[in-house]
Amino acid sequence: MKSLHRGSRPSLFLLLFLLFFIASIHSGCSSKEPVKIGFIGGLTGKIGDVGTYGRDGTILAVEARNASGGIRGRKVALEIRDDAQDAARVKTGVKELTDRGVLAVIGPIASEMCIAALPVAQERNVLLVSPSAMTDELSGKTDLFVRVLPAVRENSSRMADFMHDNMGVSTVAAVADLGNRAYTTNWVNGFRSRLEARGGRVTGVETYTSEPQALFIPLARRLAGHGAQAVLLSASAVDAAMICQQLRKTGWKGKIVVTEWASSEKFLSLGGSAVEGAVVSQFFDRESRDPRYLAFADAYRKRFGTDPGYFSVLGYDAANAVLDALETCDLCSGEALRDTILRIGAFQGIQEKFSIDAFGDAKRGSFIAVVRNGKYQVVR
Question: Could you give the domains of the chain?
Answer without folding.
Answer: 35-149+288-363 (3.40.50.2300), 152-282 (3.40.50.2300)
